[in-house]
């Protein structure tokens, strides 16, 4: 079970409590309550892998440069992924984040940089999934 209880939405809160109370009484359960924080959306992942990477792959194939999705993804991670500083045993290193490590805003920026790269260097227009709202939902 997973609930997002927004301020003022008593119905969802009541449903969550009802579901908790309706669980098998012979088993132990844990319940965690924490502030809600958006994570990457399925829509962001679907747009990146189902539209952006696929359109770039098709464009490359049409121009005599066949590539697979994994190689394309790896190249863009290398070029445009957000970087963070990590310190191990007193030595600081720069680490590139993978999609699974990015938050919503980082993912939006990553996708935007890939789309801009495609337009600037490949003359490839990749449509925005929702022109009125941007990538982060």
What report would you give on this structure?
This protein is mainly α. It contains 4 helices and 2 strands; from the N terminus they run αααββα. The chain has helices at about 10-20, 40-60, 70-80, 105-120; strands at about 85-90, 90-95. α2 packs parallel to α4 (about 105-120).
Annotation keywords:
mainly alpha, disordered C terminus, two-stranded antiparallel ribbon, single chain, 137 residues
Q: Beta fraction of the residues?
A: 5-15%
Helix content: 40-55%
Give the CA-based shape: elongated
Query: What pattern of helices and strands is seen along the backbone?
Result: HHHEEH
Mean pLDDT, to the nearest integer, reads: 86
Distance between the termini: 22 Å
Rg over C-alpha atoms, rounded to the nearest angstrom = 21 Å
Q: Would you count the extended β strands for me?
A: 2
Look at the helices and sheets and give the structural class.
mainly alpha
| Main sheet strand line-up | 1-2
Number of helices: 4
Please summarize the sheet with the most strands.
Answer: 2 strands, antiparallel
Low-confidence stretches: 132-137
């Amino acid at each position: 079970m997973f609930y997002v209880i927004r301020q003022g939405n008593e119905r969802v809160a009541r449903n969550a409590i009802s579901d908790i109370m309706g669980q098998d009484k012979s088993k132990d359960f844990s319940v965690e309550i924490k502030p809600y924080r958006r994570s990457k959306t399925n829509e962001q992942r679907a747009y990146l892998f189902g539209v952006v990477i696929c359109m770039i792959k098709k464009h490359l194939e049409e121009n005599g440069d066949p590539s697979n999705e994994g190689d394309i993804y790896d190249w863009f991670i290398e070029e445009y992924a957000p970087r963070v500083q990590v310190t191990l045993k007193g030595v600081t290193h720069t680490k590139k984040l993978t999609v699974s490590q990015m938050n919503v805003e980082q993912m939006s920026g990553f996708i935007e940089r890939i789309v801009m790269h495609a337009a600037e260097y490949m003359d490839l227009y990749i449509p925005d999934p929702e022109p009125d709202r941007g990538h982060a939902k």
